[in-house]
Amino acid sequence: MSEADIRGTATSGENEAAGQMRDQRIRAIRGSTGTADPSDQPAFSQPVRQVVMMLIVLGLVIAGGWFAYGRILSVFDANPYLNGLILVVFALGVVTCFWQVGQLINSVNWIERFAARRRNALQNGVPVGYEGEALDAPRLLAPLAALWVRAGRSVG
Q: DSSP for 109-120?
């Protein structure tokens, strides 16, 4: 530990070196070389793997229920209203999960379209965004869309 660290003060050279080390660590963690390569930009992807896993698990639960039906039926008949309510809540939860993934897919599609329109507008030298663009955004992204459109108009 240096004397400057003990005192809590550092020279501008030490601050600059610390900043460079921090930047190097961040680039190493992100796997970036520090260049302005478009592949370094964050990318949104469709949740295909998650949907497939959800379908597989749902299929396994249905298959398990099918095979255990004979044993479960006597337990289910002991209190059909309570067990029916449990099944309805389970089904509602499964439908809600798939609905939310559908909303996520819609949001990713909107972000990809927005980025493509912005990229094309900047390449062609035309203004970025239009008045109703924030209104076209999914509900999940409405606040973010308003900020993006406003920022795009001030930049473009």
A: HHHHHHHHHHHH
